[in-house]
Each structure stands twice: as C-alpha cells, then as structure tokens.
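User: Can you predict the 3D structure for this chain?
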Amino acid sequence: MTSLKLRTDEELYRRIRNGDQESVAVLYERHREPLYRYALHMSGNRSTAEEVTQEVFLRLIAPGGGFDDQRGSLEAYLFGIARNLLRRMRPAMSLEQAPEQMAEPDALRDLLQDETTAALYRAVQELPDAYREAVVLCDLDERSYEEAARLMDCPVGTVRSRLYRARALLGAKLRKASGRELAREQRDRLP
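Assistant: Here is the predicted structure, written as structure tokens:
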C-alpha cells in the first residue's frame, strides 16, 4: 500500500478501473477530509456532508465512471460531483440550526457559540452558491485562487471576482446584523 500512496490520483483511478480495491482506499484517505470539509461548509449540515462524501466515492467506483483525465484532474472531478450532489440535496433547515448541525469537536462548537462567528456562518450560508463556494475554498479551506479555479472549473479571474463580491455581501450582512444587535441592546436598556 505504501507504493500506492506515491502514485498520482489518475494512476490510482486507472488501477480502480482494473479492480484494485487498495487504490480505492488510498484515494478515499487522500480526498475524504477535504471533500467532507467542503460539503460541510457548503451545506452547513454534518449528515449532509457525510452523505455527499460517501456518494462521491460510490460514484467514483461505479461501473462506467465518468472521469476523463483529458478534461481535468481527479480532484476537480470529485469536487464537481460533490458540488452537483449538494445542489440537488440543498437542505431545508433553518439557518439558526446550522451551527449546531455543523459542530463536531468541542473547540469548534465553542467557537460557533460566539455570536460574531455564528452571524458570519449564517451570512456565509445565505450567499449564492457560486460565491459561497469561492469563500469556502479560498477563505475557509485556505486554497489558492489557482486551486479553487481548478476545483470550480472556472478561470482564476472568476474566482477572484466571486470572492470579491462574496466578501462585499458578507460585510454588508454583518454590518446589518451588528446594527440590529446594537439596536436590540439599546432597546433592552430602556426603562
């Protein structure tokens, strides 16, 4: 298995097509966490993220898989599957529930309890899909513009403009939310 870990994704995919189960395990270990994080940030729901992650790999190993290394990298293909699944599965949950659904480790749960972080998370969830995807990949997953462009299957300039617009929308939403909070505090202080 050690020699398999040194192989490219595309080599491992070819081995999977020839029935090699160890290659499936290597690809799964290599891409499971980034795909899960992406699906979690995009959906705001842990069970949806788990379901999407599993479904991506089921589709990868299904007979007649659609990956073509002439069209791009296997990683971009996996993220494309996840993106399409998320669009179809768009969870019908209230945004107030999202932080509790997303919370995993205690540190993350504690962080999400912070009002500012919760407001930011809600604002990210309210962004249009294309903008949210740019924020998730570049700001939350800390990927480069080039990596995000490859995973989003678009030019780098598109990633930059979506990120610019997303950040402007987030700023406006957060200013509006903090203004409401300030007004609420002032109202509560009145005798």
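Residues 1-93 form a domain with the Rna Polymerase Sigma Factor; Chain: A fold (CATH 1.10.1740.10). DSSP finds eleven helices and no strands in the chain.
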